Amino acid sequence: MKIGDLEFTNIAFLAPMAGIADRAFRELCTQFGAAYTVTEMVSSKGLTMGDKKSGELLTIGNERPCGAQIFGDDPEIMAQAAVKCLEYNPNIIDINMGCPAPKVAMNGGGASLMKKPQLAYEITKAVVEAVEIPVTVKIRKGWDDDNINAVEMALLAQKAGASAVAVHGRTRQQMYSGTVDYDIIAEVKNALDIPVIANGDITDEQTAAIMLEKTNADAIMIGRGALGNPWVFSRINAYLSECRVLPEPSTIEKMNVMLKHIQKIIEYKGEYTAMREARHHAAYYTKGMRGGAKLRAEISKYEHFEQLQELSYRIIKEAKL
């Protein structure tokens, strides 16, 4: 599996997720075997205007290879943003044409480009011509059930010079509901000469294997399935490469990894921000635990890392009884 000159041994990638796939989470997933990660999406307009937050989102640490994802609807500005991204030394520039969020899709970016194939082509071509590193495109099945055009969009991306295409097997109208459409991803794979990355409903080694079997994709991209579950990558890698099923992580491991994760967020963003983001992450790390709802309600009130530590130690102590 190659994207441009980048060669991948493992094929389980972390999907870009706004508000989730920050530097701390990307580094954690890389440590657990994610072969490739992508930054949170950055507005091309904001980046070219010198927005400070955009720069922070593009900061890449040890999580390599890592792509920088940008969104927008103006080819010239997208090209300028891609060049600006190079200051942060990404391995790939990724163009978001799949985000369903209203604030993005209703303002010309993200999945709205599924309705404008020609503009999507012009954007991709402009970005490819502006940078010397590989450019990839992330799309959806289509805008809605009456407008399924993933194959057309993927072919245009390839024609424009993209080095790979990632496909989420749902329409924008579906958002994240319903089930992923394996067939549309398989159709894209059959139509393209460049690598195709399959995305949607991959939560463990079994769903990863099913996705690959049904689509023949070159790689898979895990999004929500990695929340509170970074070891999903090591499990998938072991299953795909060695047919091994690794044991489920223990409560002790879950708590230790959660604390490590939040500590990294504190390091990069400070305790105030990190503890508010911790509430969201902790909900996933404690999912399925006895009294989980009560735990999450308790965590939602925490202001300091020490409080989270104390709770984790309490959970671990109870698990040992």
From TrEMBL:
<feature type="binding site">
    <location>
        <position position="138"/>
    </location>
    <ligand>
        <name>FMN</name>
    </ligand>
</feature>
<feature type="domain" description="DUS-like FMN-binding">
    <location>
        <begin position="14"/>
        <end position="318"/>
    </location>
</feature>
<dbReference type="InterPro" id="IPR004652">
    <property type="entry name" value="DusB-like"/>
</dbReference>
<dbReference type="GO" id="GO:0000049">
    <property type="term" value="F:tRNA binding"/>
</dbReference>
<comment type="similarity">
    <text>Belongs to the dus family.</text>
</comment>
<keyword id="KW-0285">Flavoprotein</keyword>
<keyword id="KW-0820">tRNA-binding</keyword>
<keyword id="KW-0560">Oxidoreductase</keyword>
<dbReference type="InterPro" id="IPR018517">
    <property type="entry name" value="tRNA_hU_synthase_CS"/>
</dbReference>
<feature type="active site" description="Proton donor">
    <location>
        <position position="99"/>
    </location>
</feature>
<keyword id="KW-0819">tRNA processing</keyword>
<comment type="function">
    <text>Catalyzes the synthesis of 5,6-dihydrouridine (D), a modified base found in the D-loop of most tRNAs, via the reduction of the C5-C6 double bond in target uridines.</text>
</comment>
<feature type="binding site">
    <location>
        <position position="168"/>
    </location>
    <ligand>
        <name>FMN</name>
    </ligand>
</feature>
<feature type="binding site">
    <location>
        <position position="69"/>
    </location>
    <ligand>
        <name>FMN</name>
    </ligand>
</feature>
<dbReference type="InterPro" id="IPR001269">
    <property type="entry name" value="DUS_fam"/>
</dbReference>
<keyword id="KW-0521">NADP</keyword>
<dbReference type="InterPro" id="IPR024036">
    <property type="entry name" value="tRNA-dHydroUridine_Synthase_C"/>
</dbReference>
<keyword id="KW-0694">RNA-binding</keyword>
<dbReference type="InterPro" id="IPR035587">
    <property type="entry name" value="DUS-like_FMN-bd"/>
</dbReference>
<dbReference type="Pfam" id="PF01207">
    <property type="entry name" value="Dus"/>
</dbReference>
<feature type="binding site">
    <location>
        <begin position="16"/>
        <end position="18"/>
    </location>
    <ligand>
        <name>FMN</name>
    </ligand>
</feature>
<dbReference type="GO" id="GO:0017150">
    <property type="term" value="F:tRNA dihydrouridine synthase activity"/>
</dbReference>
<protein>
    <recommendedName>
        <fullName>tRNA-dihydrouridine synthase</fullName>
        <ecNumber>1.3.1.-</ecNumber>
    </recommendedName>
</protein>
<feature type="binding site">
    <location>
        <begin position="223"/>
        <end position="224"/>
    </location>
    <ligand>
        <name>FMN</name>
    </ligand>
</feature>
<keyword id="KW-0288">FMN</keyword>
<dbReference type="GO" id="GO:0050660">
    <property type="term" value="F:flavin adenine dinucleotide binding"/>
</dbReference>
<keyword id="KW-0547">Nucleotide-binding</keyword>
<dbReference type="InterPro" id="IPR013785">
    <property type="entry name" value="Aldolase_TIM"/>
</dbReference>
